[in-house]
Specification:
Helix content: 10-25%
Oligomer: single chain
CATH superfamily: Nucleoside Triphosphate Pyrophosphohydrolase
CATH topology: Nucleoside Triphosphate Pyrophosphohydrolase
Number of domains: 1
CATH architecture: Alpha-Beta Complex
Radius of gyration: 18 Å
Structural class: mainly beta
Largest sheet: 8 strands, mixed
Order of helices and strands: EEEEHEEEEHEEEHEEE
Number of strands: 14
Distance between the termini: 31 Å
CATH class: Alpha Beta
Shape: globular
Length: 221
């Protein structure tokens, strides 16, 4: 992973969304190679519950810049101190279905224990770049939400975790800029129903008197 690929970049900006946000894509150096830190969003959150993401969040009025937003949110979510983050550059803005324009910043961070804020983060996981770039762990899908809304989706499955959605799009560009990895030019399958996307499934109790929810992931077909 060569992080010079993100230094000095002028990101493509998204200006059509109503809200701004920023995240840190944290790079961790370990004895067995470089890795990326992800958070698993808490299940009770209203937006993207249970999904894998990079630390970050919405811009606040007091934030002087999106970089400050990313560092503040990372501090709140995982306890990363702003001075610990060596920011190399940023990726292109990502627009989300929740009407955010998200600016991803790429930063090297210390390899230490981080403490999740359980009001927002259910879990912290560190995934090896070598595993994320393994072709056996990657799937591309074409999602036809409607005739007017069609998307290419990316799924990275490593160590029981699935990175997809907006974070998957960020990860694709990060890997393209810093490694020899390239996404497949072909898609593995077409998804034509939201039922085949990761999301909450409600299960009725055996006697029909209670219900519980679990997080499902689409499987390879």
């Amino acid at each position: 992973m060569d992080l010079t690929g993100v230094r000095g970049r002028n990101p493509v900006e998204v200006t059509t969304q109503r809200r701004e946000a920023a995240v840190i894509a944290p790079v961790v150096s370990r004895e067995d190679g470089l890795a990326l830190l992800f958070t698993k969003r808490a299940d009770h959150l209203g937006e993207h519950p249970g999904q894998m993401s990079f630390p970050g969040g919405g811009r606040e009025p007091e934030d002087a810049s999106l970089r400050e937003t990313a560092l503040r949110e990372a501090n709140e979510e995982i306890g990363l101190r702003p001075h610990e983050a060596d920011v190399h550059g940023c990726l292109d803005d990502i627009d989300t279905v929740t009407d955010y324009a998200v600016r991803p910043f790429v930063a090297s961070i210390p390899d230490r224990d981080y403490v999740p804020d359980d009001t927002e983060v259910a879990e912290i996981s560190v995934l090896q770049v070598s595993a994320l770039t393994d072709a056996d762990n990657y799937e591309a899908a074409f999602y036809e939400r409607s005739e007017q809304a069609q998307y290419r989706l990316h799924f990275f499955r490593v160590d029981g975790y699935t990175v997809w959605g907006a974070t998957g799009r960020m990860l694709v560009q990060l890997l393209e800029l810093t490694t020899d990895w390239q996404p497949s030019t072909e898609v593995d399958r077409t998804i034509d129903s939201e039922d085949d996307l990761p999301g909450w499934v409600t299960h009725a109790g055996a006697d029909g008197s209670c219900q519980c929810q679990s997080w499902k992931f689409p499987q390879r077909k």
